[in-house]
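Example record used in the benchmark description.
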Amino acid sequence: MTPRWFELNNEKFFARTWGDPSLPPLLMLHGFPEYSGAWEELALKLLDHFYCVAPDQRGYGHSYCPEGVEHYRTGVIAADMAELAKQLGAPVTVMGHDWGASTAYGLAMFFPELVSRLIIANGVHPIPFQKAMASGGAQSEASQYINALRRIGSEDYLAKDDFDKLLQLFSAKMDLGWLTGEKLQDYKAEWGREGRLKAMINWYRASPLVVADPGVPVELPQMDTSRLHVTCPHLLIWGMDDTALLPISRHGLEDFANDLTIHEIKGADHWLLHQKPDEVAQIIRNWMAQ
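Model output (structure tokens):
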């Protein structure tokens, strides 16, 4: 791993990189509550094909961490990564997981000239996800943690007892067996950086997505979806045991991505990048070779 700093829109961002800078860049975008180091297992298996670049996104790790919820809107975060894609030599292949998928979709939809291919691992397009969360059904129930995170002071609650509550949320009926020992200490060090946990949760507070109460569907306003299409080739890799993002959250994705390939992985959940890095890497290699 080689650390690298970038100046993006006049602010400092830190990234971990793997591989030869002369290879095609793969921009790897982490989610909550991870950081750039979350990509290491996968990057080490792809560095023969790509120059892997994993930034700490805004509010995470060593990167720019402003005060205020307004600094964590998806459009602002996507603009950070658009500048990074330009500096890497756009168009680039972009891969996102969890909230990183939201940023990746934002790049592909709003900066299509910067993205040659889009890879998502257990992440969701905003329209199918919003419909599923507003329905009052299973995804609404699975997403109640979002409303909990949005409450004032949730970051203080999650930090108590050496981040015990955050780890409980992190597992959420899923396999966290990969997060032990030195790796766990590395995660706690990232969570413990001043102001970072609040900033990480501000991504949820800044999001306009509505989470209905279970059994109480919410009627959504008419939305202009004309700018929410992915025009580049799009690969979705899905761990089937995910209890936070259910398969219904991707229903209708094909309406927003004309060139869509879906690969499902059994025996993996939301944390498939850590649980099945070999399989994920092989799926990516095969798809890129098409």
